[in-house]
Amino acid sequence: xxxIIEEQPxxxxxxxxxxxxxxxxxxxxxxxxxxxVGLPLNxxxxxxxxxxxxxxxxxxxxxxxxxxLDMTLGDKWLKETS
Length: 82
Fold this sequence. Notes:
Structural class: alpha+beta
Order of helices and strands: EHEEHE
Number of domains: 1
C-alpha cells in the first residue's frame, strides 16, 4: 500500500492523476458496508473519519506515484510509512 486518503474527491483526483501518468493504481474504499456511496460505517470505529481510501501501486512505480501525489494532493493524502 502506498498511502491513504480520507476524502472521496481527493481519492478520485489521485486515481485520475496516476492514470494520466500511466501509473497502474488501485484505490480501495474502506468506507464500510456501503463502500464509497451512502453512509460510511467506519466513522463509528475510526475516530469519526468519514471515509478512508487505500492507494496501491506496483513497487516499481512507488517513487513516481509518491512525487505525483505530493504535487497534486499535498497534505490531503498520507504516505504509508511501513
